[in-house]
Design goal:
heterotrimer; A alpha/beta; B mainly alpha; C mainly alpha; A: alpha/beta; Rossmann fold; 6-stranded mixed sheet; 11 helices; 27% strand; B: MetI-like fold
Chain lengths: 255, 274, 281
Amino acid sequence: MLPILEVKNLIVSIGSKTLVKEINFCLHKGETLALAGASGSGKSTIAHAILQLNPSEMKASGEILLQNENLLRLPERDMQHVRGRKIGIVFQNPMTCLNPTMKIGKQIVEGLIYHEKISGKEARERAIEFLDLVKITNPKVRVDQYPHELSGGMRQRVMIAMATACRPEIVIADEATSSLDRVTQTQIIELLKEIQNKTGVSLLLITHDLRLVSRSCDRVLIMQQGEIVESGFTKQIFESPTHTYTKALMEACYA
Amino acid sequence: MISTREKFISSRAGMIGLSTLFVIVFMAIVGPSLSGQTYYDTHLALKNQPPSLQFWFGTDDLGRDVFTRAWYGARISLFVGVAAALIDAVVGMLWGGIAAFSGGKVDEIMMRIADILYALPYMLVVILIMVVLGNGIGSILVAMTIVGWISMARVIRGQILQIKQEEYVLASIALGANFFHILIKHLLPSATGSIIVTLTFTIPAAIFVEAFLSFLGLGIQAPVASWGTMVNHGLPALNYYPWRLFFPALLISATMLSCNMIGDALRDATDSRS
Amino acid sequence: MMKSIPGDPFTDNKALPPEIHLALRAHYGLEDSLSTQYLRYLTAISTFDFGPSYRYKDLTVNDIIQQGFPISATLGLEAMVIALIAGISLGVIAALRRTHWIDHAAMVSATIGVSVPSFITAALLQYVIALKLGLLPVARWGTFAHTILPALSLAAMPTAIIARLVRANMIEVLHQDYIKTAKAKGLPLFHIIMRHALCNACAPILPFLGQLTANILIGSFVIEKIYGIPGLGQWFVNSVTTRDYTVVMGMTIFYSIILLSALFLSEKLHQFLDPRIKEKQ
C-alpha cells in the first residue's frame, strides 16, 4: 500500500493550550481511514490543519507530507493549488456551508471555472454532470436552484460534488454525516464509497460514530484528548480492542 | 466579569469623548461670565476683528464678542439637544413600553401608527412644522419631538418584548401588581442600557437638527446666538473673517463627535455579546 | 396644514394697497372656502399640475421643478455614487485589516464623518480647497469641476454611515461557514471577497438606501445654499421662508414621490440580491 499522505509529529496549539499532541499516521492510496473519537478530541483540528484552514491564532508544527511537500510550510498561493484540486473536504453542516445567495450549480463548478477557465455554458453542463454523479434527481432543474430549496441530504451531496469536482486524490469528510438522519447517513457513505470505487480516491473519514467506522472503513485511529490511543485495521480493533478508552467508546456506541 | 463601567472606561475614544463633553458643558455654564462681555452688546467700531486679548474669539459683523456668543450658543444648542432627546425618550419609553407589555391588538395598532409616522421623511416634517409654528425654541422642540420619539419606542419595545417573559415579571403579575407598576418598576429599568445608549445618540442628532434649521433661517434667529445662526452668518464672510465660522463650527463638530464616541463606547460596553 | 399659517403670501409685501390685495386673493382663489380650495388642489395634483408660484408671478411650480430638478438630481446622484463606492471600499478594507491601524483610521474617519454636519464639511472644503488653494471653483454651477466639491460635501456623511455598516456586515460574513468552504475549494482571497462576501455583506445596506436618498435630499438644501447652486433645494428653502405655499406643497409632494420610489426600488433590489427574502414572503 502506497502512503499518499504522511503526518509526522503534528502538534497544534492555541495560546498555551495544546489541542493536538504529537500525532503520527499515514493515509494510503485508495484506502478509507477513520479518525474516530468524541467531540473535542482534536480530530477536526487535524483535518483543518492539513489544509491550513485553522484560524491564524492556532499554531501548527511538525510535517504533513503530500508528495513530499510539507503542507504546513506551504505559502498561501501554493496552498490554493492543493485545496480543492489535490485534497477536497466535506464539512459537517450543509446548511451553513453553502452560500445562500448563489445557485448551487455555480457553487459546484466554481473551483473548476476558476482553475481551468471553462466557458459559462460548459460550466453549466459540467455542473449538471456532477449533480447526476451524486445522484440528485432532476439535475437540470436543480442546477439553478438555491441551497434553501434543497433538503439536508441533497445539500450534503452538493458538498460532495463540490469536493470531488476537480478530481482530488484525497477527500476528507469532517463529520460529514453527523447532522443527517440515519437513512441519509447510510446513503451518503455509500455514495462516497462508490466514488472511491470509480476514481480510486483515498478517504479520510472523521467521525464519532463507531458503527459507521465498522461498516465502511479499512483502518481506524482512535483519538482521545489530542492523542491517538489506538490504531489498526477495523476488523482487528473491533474484535479485540486493547485500550480502555476504545472499549469505553465501543460500549457507548453500541449501548 | 468586568462591569459595564470598567468596559466603558477602558475605551479610549469613549473617555476622550466624555472629557471633551465635560469641558464644553463646563464652558457653556461658565464661559459667558468669564469674558466680561455679553452676547448682544455691539461694538460697531470694532466689528470683524480677529481674535485678540480683548475678544478671545474675535468679533462678528456687528462687533459682538464671538467668544461669549459661542458659549451662549452652547447653552442653547445643548439645552435644545438634551431637552428634545429627553422628551423623545419619555414619549418613546411610554409608547414602546405600553405597546410591548400589552401585546396583542394594542401592540399592533400602536406600532402600526408608529410605522406610518416613521415613513414620513423626518426633516421634511420638521421643516414644515417650523414653517407653521414660526421661529423659536418652543417650536423647535415641538417640531423635533413630534416624530422623533419613534426610534426610541422601537428600541424599548424590542427590549421589553424580550424581558417580558422573565420570571420575576411573571411573579410580579402573579402577585397582582398592576400594569403601570410592573412597567415602571421592573421592565423599564431592565432596558436602561439600551435607553441610555439610544439617548446618547439622539442628542447629537437633535443638536444637528437645531443647527440645520437655524442655518436655513428657520430656527433660532439673531440676535440670540445659537451655533446654527452663527454658522449661517459666518459663512458669507468665510474668506475674510474665518473665525466667525470657525469657532461655532468647531464647537458643533466637537460636541457631536464626543456624543457619538461616548455612544459607541457605551454600546460596546453594554453589548452582552462582546 | 399650510392653510393654518397666519397671513398669506402677500402679507409680506407691504407695498400692496388693500384693494389690490383683495383682488389678488380672489384671483388666486384664496377667498373661496377652505374645502373648495382643497378639492381644487387635489384635482389639480392628480394631473400633476402643482399650480402657480405666488411669489414669482410668471412661474408655475411645475416650471420651478423642471428647472431645478435636473441640477439637483445630478448632484444627488453623484453624491450617492461617491458614497456607495467610497463607503463600501472603506468598509471592506477595514473589515479585512481588523486591529490593524488601517481599520482604526478608517473607523475614526467614519465617526468624524457621521458627526460633522454636512454644512460644516461644505464650508471647510470651500474654504480650504477653493478659496485658499484655488484648486476648484468656489460656487455656482456649470462644468463638471463645479460639481466635485458639492458632491463630496453631500457624500461625506452617507459614506461614513455606509462604511460602518459594511464593515460590521463584512466581519460577520467572513466568519460564516460558506466562506470556509470557498477557501477549502482553493479559491483565492480576492475572488472569495468579490463573489461571495461582498454580495452578502452589502445586501443589508439596501433597506438603508431609501434613507440614504432622504439624507442626500435634505442635505442638498444646505449644500446648494452654500455653493450657490440653483437647484430644487434652494427653491424649496426660499419658498419656505417666503411662505410661497403652493411651491412648498408642490415640492413636498414631489419629494415624497421621489422618496417613496426610492424606498420601493431599494426593496426590489434587496429581493433580487437575496433570494431568501422572496421565500419568506
